[in-house]
Amino acid sequence: MGSQPLLIFDLNGTRFGLDATRVRESVWLPELTPAAEAPHWIVGLFILRGRVIPVADLHLRLDRPAQRYSLSDQVVVLEAGHASMGIIVNEVRKVISLPDEAIQPPPQFDATAQGVHHLVVGEARVGDDLVTILDVSRLMHLSESQAPGGAEPGAGPGEAAQAAAAACGFFSEATPDERSVLRARAVKLREAAIEDDTESLGLAVVEVGGELFGVELAAVQEFCDIAQLSPIPCCPPHILGAMNLRGDLLTLIDPRAALNLQPAARGGKAVVSRLGEQAVGIAVDEVHDVVYLRKGELQAPPLSLRERCGASITGTAPYGGRTMTVLHLSALLAQEEWIVDENVSFREG
């Protein structure tokens, strides 16, 4: 029984999810350059640090009416093999880990129909929300038989109108101020290419106590909801207890003391890592995003932060208009007082 990491996002009142392992990063919507001989749902291109990224309007990709773009929209950059594509979404919500059995097959309204329903691989309940799960490989597939002008052969009147609208240019109704912001974003994203993938740092963006932290993806095994905890006797307060994670004993740790944050009720999510053979969960309030950071964007932590957190902090980086503190998870978990021998603890209890 496995689980899937999913990136959850909103689009015009609907909540969607897709395989988080295929997400390269998310960026604020930039100015897009028109793409010649592309499907009508490819609304433009932008350069992401030397790499050309085609961008799909997910409304059009799902055969829905086009909607006005906004400066608050985001582009989620997906990768499948050597191919990349961006999709425009209203808001990236969070990254979750969902058990395989929680994902149900999508309803089949017309088994002979082609198109949209082939993009949907499942439906799942996440809290009080119904989330539609999209297939990244199918979402990124470009038809090899495109008619000139971007409309597919046999496209209906609605699709033809959408293709004609796309041909008028990206965000044609944008105000001068909006265009200035979009252009500035595009210029920033074009800056110095990453010469090698090893020069980028994959991070999960989490929130604890109202502050943002980045956790290196290389140190993350998965994300999970915090379930019923069993107390571990004779442990310090930051050891919240142990929980069963698919048959594996997971020690749950509250990082607030180590990060010099005020004590508070534990969050509902856990970032799961390993300390040797021992599974360890770090309690967080929310998992917001997965991003890839250029090493040059990582700034040295302020002296006050280094004094507070020591080797547990790698640096700081901007994220969504705020400052994100990047954690050195291995150093954080290696603190002697965090190491718990469950066997001894349970035997003493």
CATH level-two architecture of the largest domain = Beta Barrel
Overall strand count: 21
| Residues in helices, as a percent range | 10-25%
Tell me the distance between the termini: 31 Å
- Strand-residue fraction? 35-45%
Overall pLDDT score: 77
Shape: globular
Largest sheet: 6 strands, mixed
Fourth-level CATH superfamily of the largest domain: CheA-289, Domain 4
Number of helices: 7
How many domains, in number, for the residues?
2
Under CATH, the topology of the largest domain can be stated as OB fold (Dihydrolipoamide Acetyltransferase, E2P)
How would you briefly describe this protein structure?
This protein is mostly beta strands and 349 residues long. Helix content is 15%, strand content 40%. It contains seven helices and 21 strands.
Overview of the molecule:
The structure is a single chain. By secondary structure, this protein is mainly beta. It folds into 2 domains: 3-189, CheA-289, Domain 4 (OB fold (Dihydrolipoamide Acetyltransferase, E2P), Beta Barrel), CATH 2.40.50.180; 197-348, OB fold (Dihydrolipoamide Acetyltransferase, E2P) (Beta Barrel). Helix content is 15%, strand content 40%. The protein has 7 helices and 21 strands. The chain has helices at residues 58-61, 136-139, 157-167, 176-189, 303-309, 329-333, 342-348, and strands at residues 3-11, 14-19, 23-28, 42-48, 51-57, 74-80, 83-89, 91-99, 103-104, 120-126, 129-134, 200-208, 211-216, 222-225, 239-245, 248-253, 269-275, 278-284, 286-294, 313-319, 322-327. Strands 8-1-2-11-10-9 form a 6-stranded mixed beta sheet. A 5-stranded mixed beta sheet has the order 3-6-7-5-4. A hairpin with a 2-residue loop joins strand 15 and strand 16. It is globular and about 65 Å long. The chain starts with a strand and ends with a helix. Mean pLDDT is 77; it is low at 144-167, 194-198 and 342-349.
